[in-house]
Specification:
The complex is a heterodimer of chains A (185) and B (513).
Chain A: H1 3-15, H2 19-41, H3 44-60, H4 71-88, H5 100-103, H6 113-128, H7 131-142, H8 147-154, H9 158-182
Helix pairs in contact in A: 1-2, 2-3, 2-4, 2-7, 3-4, 4-8, 6-9, 7-8, 7-9, 8-9
Chain B: H1 3-11, H2 21-29, H3 31-50, H4 56-66, H5 82-98, H6 103-107, H7 126-145, H8 149-172, H9 179-199, H10 203-230, H11 233-255, H12 278-294, H13 298-322, H14 325-348, H15 355-383, H16 388-391, H17 394-426, E1 436-445, E2 450-455, E3 464-477, E4 480-481, E5 492-497, E6 503-508
Parallel strand pairs in B: 3-6
Antiparallel strand pairs in B: 1-2, 1-5, 2-3, 3-4, 5-6
Chain lengths: 185, 513
């Protein structure tokens, strides 16, 4: 069976209520959704909550998922709505700013001071991006999404998605230009 | 391609994606852009480690919880909200109203979406784009009729102004994807078009026109700089090519540097817009406009207009598929104007008797005919299974009929040209040109090299005519050659007239000797 056929078969099975199939989907998409939400919320505990909530809503709403559509795009759209709902919700504004844990991810033994500094710089630069640019940029860069998919997840036009990615990269290069030049890979 | 265009390209491409040849070529030659690319690749590589871990504990907890959750809820359609209902009805309404000429108005109504506050999202301005296409169609038609370089310079300057305005509009509205293309087109119109046409002028006219051109370029430069300063930094970067093109044009004019001959005079732009879009049409109109300005041969001009007609036909089909009745109708009007004024108008100017050129004319007509057939069959397919009025209203159908009429006119013009050619061929020795005329010399003007004669003709006997003597005219009496000074009044002569009615052969009759 081709990977694409296999993927569709799993999605069909999950849609029919097969928990094992849905678990396979969770396994496949958990990381990308969590990383995206972590980037947006800058709070990993909140990102965990939102990821769980997104998958829960996805499980409950599998009946509304249109066969043939992209499950990934559908799932990310749910995650985006969870994030928006949380911002509007009774708990009010979400704590912004980098979580201490995320900002100081424990380095491996081989990780140099320069690499740690670089990572911190990247985190700061990404965190400093306006939220709407960051959302588009992370979908495009971290999740290899096409502009059309980014547009669908964020409920914008493809041209706007392209513009947001363009703008985000331009800002990041401006902020990180010196570091990138001084520390070539 | 210039550095800012390459930068814009790189910013919306992934490092692993294949780059188009012009971008690769530029990167090979430009260290600055290579450095920018390296930075972007580095940025992508650095990005993944930034992300936190995947929260495996939370995932395991969720998977454990999943086993005890109730199954997915079956799909039940909730009563549609007003917005949902509207968005579902929109395509249907658009299709219905397209036939009534209201398709465009409906298609421009979209449900409100959540938009950012910080950056103005791109707004599609169909009216602006339609107006732009309409202006460029007019520029092209004027260029297809203009042979005077000074007039062409004026028309090309209008094109440059419109392209500059479009670049500013795209920058203001945050639609950078088409900016590099518009910048490239602007550069071509200014450098290839305006400066190129200026070089084709005689030296005296060049000198006369130069101060005005330089003054205009200076004003343009100032305008671009003002706009760039007012724009956010990334947008200002994207507007830099306009400055660079204007500077190059001013420098070439000041130095009087001849443009190097280009083996392929006007290439299509390196950057492409979506097929059928206003910017794709714009690219074709500018490219063909530049070719028209450089071309004097009416057949070649008709050919370039045909290329524009092809592009308009494709856009018309796309518009009709989308149900954009008004837009399709507008494109139909442009198509009709291009066929009538551009193609037919230029073919009517063909006066050559050269068989090869007549064959070229036929080729142009055949190509136009194929375009009309393709358009007709395309429109017929679009309307299959539905009321054709939804897709193709009476006015649009009329456009096709008009095209057919234009084609008939073309064929008629060709038949007339062929007939004239045949008539001229048959008339050799009998008509005015090539005919032998009997006359008596009345007077000779050696300075003006003219001869006044009295005709000896049954119908026009005694009529006085003054004829120019061609430089290579043969004058003889019997076997002996004579010169103009040998001729005397009252000599009886036989004259053979050549092109333009000049005497090419003069035989003095023997008894006057």
């Amino acid at each position: 069976m081709q990977p694409e056929d296999e993927r569709q078969a799993i999605e069909r099975a999950a849609r029919a209520g097969d928990r094992q199939a849905f678990a396979a989907l969770v396994d496949c998409h958990w990381g990308p959704v969590y990383r995206w939400l972590a980037g947006l919320t800058r709070n990993e505990h909140l990102a965990e909550d939102l990821t769980q909530e997104a998958f829960l809503k996805a499980w409950r709403g599998l009946g509304t998922f249109q066969p043939g559509a992209s499950f990934r795009v559908w799932l990310f759209s749910i995650a985006r709505h969870c994030w928006i709902d949380r911002q509007r919700g009774p708990r009010g504004a979400i704590t912004t700013g980098l979580s201490e844990h995320m900002a100081t991810t424990v380095p491996g033994p081989a990780e140099s001071i320069v690499e740690r500094e670089g990572k911190a710089l990247f985190q700061q630069a990404c965190a400093a991006l306006p939220e709407h640019l960051q959302a588009a940029f992370l979908l495009w860069a971290q999740n290899d999404m096409a502009f059309a998919d980014v547009a669908q997840v964020l409920g914008i036009t493809e041209a706007t998605a392209r513009w947001r990615v363009f703008k985000a990269r331009l800002i990041l290069l401006r902020e990180l230009g010196n570091y990138l030049d001084q520390n070539p890979r | 391609m210039k550095c800012p265009e390459i930068y814009a390209w790189l910013l919306i491409s992934r490092s692993g994606e294949g780059l188009p040849v012009p971008v690769r070529r530029h990167l090979r030659a430009c260290g600055k852009c290579r450095r920018r690319r390296r930075r972007l690749v580095h940025l992508e590589q650095e990005l993944n480690p930034v992300a936190a871990t995947d929260a495996p504990v939370a995932k395991q907890l969720f998977l454990a919880k999943l086993q005890h959750l109730p199954g997915p809820m079956p799909f039940t359609a909730s009563p549609p909200t007003t917005t949902r209902r509207l968005s579902r009805l929109l395509p249907v309404a658009a299709a219905l109203l397209a036939g009534l000429g209201l398709g465009w108005a409906v298609s421009s109504v979209q449900p409100p979406s959540q938009q950012p506050i910080a950056i103005e999202p791109p707004r599609v301005s169909p009216r602006k784009e339609e107006e732009l296409v309409a202006r460029f169609v007019n520029h092209n038609l004027s260029l297809s009729e203009s042979v005077e370089p000074t007039e062409q310079i004026t028309l090309l300057s209008h094109m440059a102004t419109d392209l500059r305005a479009e670049a500013f509009r795209l920058a203001r509205q945050g639609q950078p994807e088409n900016l590099p293309l518009v910048n490239e087109l602007y550069g071509r119109v200014v450098n290839r078009g305006v400066v190129g046409r200026w070089f084709s002028l005689p030296a005296a006219e060049r000198r006369e026109l130069l101060p005005n051109l330089l003054k205009n370029l200076q004003a343009t430069q100032a305008e671009i700089e003002r706009t760039a300063q007012a724009a956010p930094a990334p947008v200002a970067d994207l507007l830099r090519p306009l400055t660079s093109s204007t500077e190059t044009a001013a420098r070439d004019l000041r130095m009087g540097v001849e443009l190097l001959p280009d083996p392929d005079p006007v290439q299509p732009p390196h950057l492409a817009a979506s097929p059928g879009s206003a910017h794709a049409l714009l690219a074709v109109l500018v490219t063909q406009g530049l070719l028209l300005a450089e071309e004097e041969d009416p057949i070649r001009r008709a050919y370039h207009c045909n290329a524009v007609a092809d592009e308009l036909s494709s856009a018309l089909l796309l518009a009709s598929t989308r149900g954009d009745g008004d837009h399709a109708m507008q494109l139909g009007k442009h198509l009709d104007a291009v066929m009538q004024r551009g193609v037919t108008g230029n073919l009517k100017r063909v006066s050559s008797e050269d068989a090869a050129q007549v064959a070229e004319v036929r080729q142009v007509i055949q190509r136009a005919s194929r375009a009309v057939e393709a358009l007709e069959s395309g429109l017929a397919r679009r309307s299959a299974g539905a009321n054709p009025r939804f897709v193709l209203d009476a006015a649009q159908y009329g456009q096709v009929k008009d095209l057919e009429k234009a084609l008939k006119d073309l064929e008629k013009a060709l038949r007339t040209a062929n007939k004239e050619r045949k008539d001229k061929g048959k008339g050799k020795g009998k008509g005015k040109e090539g005919k032998e005329i009997k006359a008596v010399i009345h007077s000779i003007d050696p300075t003006a090299e003219t001869l006044t004669v009295l005709l000896r003709d049954k119908e026009r006997d005694g009529e006085k005519m003054t004829l120019r003597i061609a430089a290579a005219a043969r004058i003889n009496q019997g076997a002996s050659e004579m010169t103009l000074t040998d001729l005397k009044p009252d000599m009886r002569v036989k004259l053979v007239l050549g092109e333009g009615g000049a005497i090419v052969e003069l035989k003095v009759e023997g008894k006057n000797q």
